[in-house]
Amino acid sequence: MPRSSSGGILxxxxxxxxxxxxxxxxxxxxxxxxxxxxxxDGASGAAAGPAAVSETPTVEPTVTKAxxxxxxxxxxxxxxxxxxxxxxxxxxxxxxxxxxxxxDGLYSRASDFVKDICVSLPVSAVDxxxxxxxxxxxxxxxxxxxxxxxxxxxxxxxxWTQTLKQAVSGKYDRWFxxxxxxxxxxxxxxxEDETIPPGTYRAEGKMENCYWxxxxxxxxIIDNNFATSARKITVTIRSSDGQFTSEGCAVWKPVx
Length: 256
Known about the structure:
Blueprint: H1 2-38, H2 88-99, H3 110-120, H4 131-137, H5 145-156, H6 161-169, E1 180-183, E2 195-196, E3 199-207, E4 210-215, E5 221-227, E6 230-237, E7 243-247, E8 252-254
Parallel strand pairs: 1-2
Antiparallel strand pairs: 1-7, 3-6, 3-8, 4-5, 4-7
């Protein structure tokens, strides 16, 4: 009985060992097959699992936005075409703009410069110079002034057109006030000293305590007179004279 029992136990133990070995072998084979299937070899004949699908992420289109700056990007020197008024003043301003004429910075427009000259011509230095003389010797014809006045005076004060022509040509009467002049046929030939050409001159008007004199180049008196009250005085200045001086007299104008 005990033998039979021990023999049965041993056979049972051998049976258990056989089953374990068989299970281990099956597991090993399964792992081998699985490894082959993972290599993607379809010729192996083993059943492979579903292939992994690689999904590419969707890229949204980039929208370009205008760059924003914390400061203004407008050109501060960009200017629009100026608008000119209707009429002669606007015509002068437009022409000056097109020609690029420059004028005194005291005026905002070329027409303002012309209007000022129109007002000044009758009154400026009227007691010491002729109108074309004042216009020519006051500096208003310098630079682009001559072109602006030639375009503007006939439009805004046409009565002074002839005066302007005389001033531009240099052929006009020169009047002389009260000071000492160097006798010379060439105006301002002596540099900073005022000059007076030889000729006959007359002072007219109410004159009290009028004194005049002609002197040589060395200052010696050639002729002179002191009038306490006079209405008209005429003096002839010769080319040989050196200076002519006037004090308290009216303006001296050439006698034609």
